[in-house]
Design goal:
Length: 466
């Protein structure tokens, strides 16, 4: 094998295993903690840097004024309190109605560019997988086949949310932390998929069960973000732009326009702005356009290597943006995972309890209810050893859990950081699940050859969809 092929194979393996996301999160953690120890704010200044200040003298003046406010606050308050005060003050300045004003204060910060603009492509690819799963041949197309995993998904959402809310009640932190109930509901499909393959092997039916559960969890997560975490009171009249954008996409489709760029730069941009102005999280702004892209009429299955040979507009969209989205996820980790180790607090333990206890208990309980109460069937080859272990694998929250942490607690500070730390520490589910698998004597089922497996993974797991 040539050195070029070896390098390409290594690069693809790093991408397929979400190396960039891990690297970004690791750099952020190290940077934030070193900055904290040396009493400087370089990480915070980087994340919240307004790029318009590079060409706008007005932004320079505003930036200096903000620095002055921070310096004044620091005389009598901690850095965390200073961040909270400035963020609250800038929020109070936003007094104009009707969508435009709520967004005037944040400018065009690096954090905004990554979380609200670039991550829109991440959620678009997530929506693509959900949409394709509803097509003939898709995992959600046959209700009876999908019923048990779908009920398990409900358990995987209700279990963590209940554990989190009960914990916040008994610790007396409902007022401060109650809004974060959805943080432990997420499942990171990329990392959970990788861990599941180690435990169950590529050919085990538990893999398909997990992927179906994760797809449904994605769909629920998109709805939770849109409904429960608007950035400000929703301004519904701006959603008329969403209708206009969807009509535009349908006109392009009827005109047999096949370039995904036409849909992305036309209806996609309009739809993003409609979400932005309506105060629905703009990272979801491309989701309504995805089902309107020309697509195949059947689904070959999530991660199916045969999809690489499909050249419909929807698959071309994924092929084009797969690698950039992985890079965006690295930036997402860099911009969101910078929490200091001293941030460990009640929020951390509530998120971890929701994930590590609520997830496996909820998934197992609802699977048991589906089988015993509703007389539905588990996939052939699965017993409750696999269900419990799979529930622990699904406790890997990471990407979307981090995203929801920022959406639920919009003011940077100790509360947001403690919840973020819980999302980061959900990686503990991986070794716990592996130990559980060994203890329960689960034997990996490897029915895919190495060459096939390499091809199979050439489409990354839903671009790290949680």
């Amino acid at each position: 094998m040539s050195n070029h092929k070896k390098k390409r194979g290594l690069f693809r393996k790093l991408i397929d295993n979400s190396f960039l996301l891990i690297a970004g999160a690791t750099i952020a953690l190290v940077w934030a903690n070193v900055a904290h120890q040396t009493d400087n704010h370089s990480y915070h200044d980087f994340v919240h840097f307004d790029v318009t200040s590079l060409w706008s003298s007005h932004a320079d003046v505003a930036h200096q004024s903000a620095d002055g406010a921070i310096d004044a606050t620091l005389v009598s308050a901690s850095p965390e309190h200073a961040e909270h005060t400035v963020a609250t003050a800038s929020h109070d300045v936003e007094t104009k109605p009707e969508g435009f004003v709520q967004h005037a204060a944040h400018g065009l910060s690096i954090h905004f560019i990554i979380n609200d603009i670039l991550m829109a492509l991440f959620f678009a690819i997530a929506a693509k997988e959900v949409w394709e799963s509803l097509l003939p041949g898709g995992s959600l197309n046959e209700p009876r086949k999908a019923a048990t995993p779908l009920l398990a998904t409900v358990g995987g959402i209700l279990g963590p949310a209940l554990i989190y809310m009960i914990g916040s009640y008994f610790t007396g932190t409902t007022a401060d932390l109650g809004n974060g109930w959805a943080v432990p509901c997420a499942t990171d499909i990329a990392f959970s998929y990788l861990v599941a393959r180690v435990i169950f092997g590529a050919g085990h039916p538990a893999i398909a069960f997990l992927l179906l559960l994760a797809i449904a969890d994605d769909a629920a997560g998109l709805m939770i973000l849109a409904i429960f975490y608007p950035q400000a009171p929703i301004v519904p009249q701006w959603l008329m732009l969403t209708v206009v954008a969807m009509c535009g996409a349908m006109m392009l489709r009827r005109s047999k326009v096949h370039s995904h760029w036409a849909y992305l730069m036309g209806p996609g941009v309009v739809c993003w702005f409609s979400f932005y102005l309506a105060n629905i999280h703009p990272a979801l702004g491309l989701v309504p356009i995805i089902p309107l892209l020309p697509h195949a009429h059947t689904d070959l299955g999530i991660f199916a290597r045969e999809e690489l040979d499909r050249h419909d507009t929807l698959n071309e969209f994924e092929h084009c943006w797969k690698l950039p989205v992985e890079c965006f996820l690295g930036l997402f980790g860099l911009a969101n995972a910078g929490v200091v180790m001293s941030s460990l607090g009640t929020g951390t333990w509530l998120v971890l309890a929701g994930l590590l206890i609520g997830k496996p208990v909820g998934i197992t309980a609802m699977t048991l209810f589906a089988e015993k109460g509703l007389k539905l069937e588990k996939p052939a080859g699965m017993d409750y050893r696999h269900v419990v272990t799979l529930g622990m694998v699904a406790a890997l929250g990471f990407t979307v859990a981090l995203f929801v942490s920022v959406a639920a607690f919009t003011v940077p500070g100790a509360i947001q950081d403690s919840v973020k730390m819980g999302a980061l520490l959900s990686f503990a589910a991986a070794p716990i699940a592996i130990v559980m698998g060994r203890a329960l004597r689960i034997v990996p089922v490897a029915t895919v050859t190495e060459d096939e497996d390499q091809d199979h993974n050439s489409v990354t797991p839903a671009a790290n969809v949680a």
